[in-house]
Amino acid sequence: MKKFALYLMLFLFSFNLLASERSLTTADRLDIIDVINNYGLAVDNKDYDLFRSLFFDDVEARLVFDPSFFGGEEIIINGLDKWVSYIKESGALFKTSQHLIANSLISYDGELVKVRSNLNSRGYYKGEEGGSVSLWGYYETYMLKDKDCWKITKHTFFSLGAE
Predict the structure, then answer these.
(1) Are 95 and 125 in contact (CB under 8 A)?
(2) CA pair distance 57, 78, nearest whole angstrom
(3) Smallest Cα–Cα separation from 92: which of 137, 43, 56, 59?
């Protein structure tokens, strides 16, 4: 009887450990990656309705540039309207751009899902034939599920270099 009680306690303990771990379904992971990919698509296509749909209204966006781009400045933007305005204003400098976002590592960070993604982006300036800038770095993006879709609550870009 003592062995049975011991095995039962071990089973319940291990069950509680497994129950407390948070995991995402494959469908959730694919949906999260779609949000990240749609972010790049929306910026490149200047599709601000799509861009807006990816974020919560109270989003916090942070851009941390290295010294080779914008002199290493850090920009913090609070709120979706300000974030969309910033993206529109900065996007107006370019006739076209291409975001290549890859290697999305997805994990839980407390109640939020954290996605770390690598970025390589190239923008072609308006009015400057052949003028362009390349920027690379990574994103740390935090998301929550809102009803049936994932949305971004906090988005940070860390610049690693530019030319």
Answers:
(1) yes
(2) 9
(3) 43
The predicted-structure confidence for 64-96, as pLDDT tens digits, reads as follows: 999 888 788 999 999 999 999 999 999 999 999
Given pLDDT bands bounded at 50, 70 and 90, which one contains residue 3? low
Between strands 94-109 and 112-125, the pairing is antiparallel
Residue 148, helix vs strand vs coil: coil
Q: Is 139 exposed, middle or buried (0-12, 13-18, 19+ CB in 10 A)?
A: buried
**Full set of structural domains in the chain with CATH:** 24-162 (3.10.450.50)
Tell me what the mean pLDDT of segment 132-153 comes to: 96
d(CA 150, CA 35): 7
> What is the distance between the terminal CA atoms of the chain, rounded to a whole angstrom?
72
Return the beta strands (E) in 42-131 as ranges. 55-64, 74-78, 94-109, 112-125
pTM of the model: 0.84
Question: Which of 150, 68, 60, 148 minimizes the C-alpha distance to 104?
Answer: 150
